[in-house]
Design goal:
- This is Transposase domain-containing protein.
- There is one protein chain.
- This protein is about 35% helix and about 20% strand.
- The protein is built from 20 helices and 19 strands.
- The protein has helices spanning about 1-10, 15-35, 105-115, 120-130, 140-145, 165-170, 180-190, 245-265, 285-290, 330, 360-380, 390-405, 425-440, 445-465, 470-485, 490, 500-505, 505-515, 525-535, 545-555; strands at about 150-155, 155-160, 195-205, 205-210, 215-225, 235-240, 265-270, 270-280, 310, 315, 565-570, 575-580, 585-590, 595-600, 605-615, 615-630, 645-655, 660-670, 680-685.
- The radius of gyration is 29 Å and the shape is globular.
Amino acid sequence: MSNRRECYSGQSKRTKYREIAEKANVIKQQLLDMGKIDSFDSDTLNLRQETQSKIQDPNTPSATLDNPKFSTSASFSFNTDNSSSSDSNLSSDSDFEVIAPNLTEQLHLWSQKHNISHAAITDLLHILKPYHSSLPLDSRTLLHTPRTVDVVSCDEGSFVYFGLEQNLVKRASCGLTSSNYPLIEKNIGLMNFSHNFLSVSVNVDGLPIHTSSTKSFWPLLCVVDQAINKNPIVVALYYGNSKPANANNFLRPFVEECKNLETNGILLNGVNYVFRVSCIIADSPARSFIKCIVGHNSLHGCEKCTQDGIYLGRTTWQYNKKTTLRTDALFKELVYEDHQRTKSVLSELDVGLVTQVPLDYMHLVCLGVVKRLVRVWVEKGPKKCKLNAHCIEKISFKLSVISQQHYPKEFSRRPRPIQMFKFWKATEYRSFILYLGPVVLCNILPKELYTHFMLLHCAIYILASDFWKMEVFRNYANELLHCFVENISMCYSKELLVYNFHNLLHLVSDVENFGCLDNFSAFPFENFMGNTIKRMVHAPNNPLQQVAKRLEEKNFCEDLPPKSKNIVTKKNGKITSIRLPKNNCVVSLTLADSCFLTKSDDIVIVKSIEDVGTSNCFKLCRDFFLSKDNFYTVPLESSRLGIYKLHSLQSSKVILSTNICRKCLLLPDFNIENKESFICFPYCNMDIFH
């Protein structure tokens, strides 16, 4: 290699590349017979001919022409740097062991992960074909692209039904666990189903695909509740100028298949499993559509109770603690004439269209209540509630400091200025109500409004974390929400008591049935639609056929087995961060990713990480806080929720990683100039080793 480097010294890169290409054409037949493809010691890649001695770097996985083997890293990386491997992000061979797919499967996985176009894949196959004769020359052969798609007319649009059972069996075959829904577990116990039970959560929503057109998709998605792989399954897909004109026509194929599965069950590995639909998750317009009920702005629009709204410029629901709740039986019998337009085809299934259609907190709380409150403070609200420009700037400054120095890697979006609230995504509003709002609004929002906001924060934090499991906390959260809604008129105005605020009164009952708020939220479905379905449209013509073919290609592509051990990042030979397989949690030396709660209830800051050679275990040198005070005391002491104001950092001690149980968000205490004073929020519903 040294001679080769000397040969090329003084030449331009273009000349180097031309000579490499010429030599590659001369020796490619030799490579097919006796060579290896390895890394080329230049700026891009290195072709190194295999010698008779077959000297090989023991740290570099080989890739022979006849039997290629690849590193089982979750992502494909091409090293273009000649620096030491210890300085780059690595996952060592000892971290986890998985059987690597062959080259064809690897290319299939790679193309699916990065959404590579067919034209680009075909070009790549033509480049690789001389070195790998087993590869096809066309992307359609590699990806098993179907020749035709069974598209049928549905109302004024087009419709493809992919089916549930086949996809469900495939997903369940990857591994099963218990359901997270208390309602399902209760039914399993009552019906003596043991573990031979499968259920699905269903989602229906609209997906615009063009900004300059009304054309949109309406996918019907499912998640297998007991499956280890929680990625949504596309069961059906509608495409048209608007939503389907008739919900029953749209849902009929799905309902018929579900009825058959409810009657006959599902056969998995010779065992017959009982099948049920556990819940239907959707936003309020989609729920009104599939349940065939009046819209949420109607005077009779509440799905959970019979209280009528009042029109005050818009439909509002004045606070009433005692209301009559709707029941599944009466809904099925069409008793609620003012509420139901017609009978929904979903009523033919063994699913309660009141109790098993929960209120999605992504739309209800994050994009509904919290966004409306921020709008009142910043842009449009009563004079007594609207903040002046100086206060708004102070809030944005705090958010900027948090974004730059204190925001962990698990959060997908960094906080933006509050003036940009119209562009905030649901995840940003979720972070605001759970963690950021209490800190950045403190001593800026008027005291009575801040206290009122904290009622909502505490209630949502309880329902989004493991505290929901304790009846005393659920009841307390329910009281907090009632108090929050009851005082809306006093703190703001009666006109603010719209549909979303009223439905906060019914949120706890859904938590009792389905667990913490994230168990039945639309977040995974919305993420799948935006990052998977929408990205499958590469051209304006025939978008339905494009997505249908991409989904069929995806069905041929088996996911790599999940990593079971830690992914280590090193710099200068020292461990700087570790990504844990469960929940993708990062343990790092940076301040934003170094705060953890231990099993002994200490809050520690990681200062160094050392591998002890044991699976999923490493040694932490850490500092811990001696002083833990309540961050707030109204409506309850924050320490009851594990939220503290911290200071007085103690010197380092060594603990094992198995002693930490939860990661924490460490925010600065803006009310104190001391830079070592922080506010600590344990992550909601994210245990590390439990």
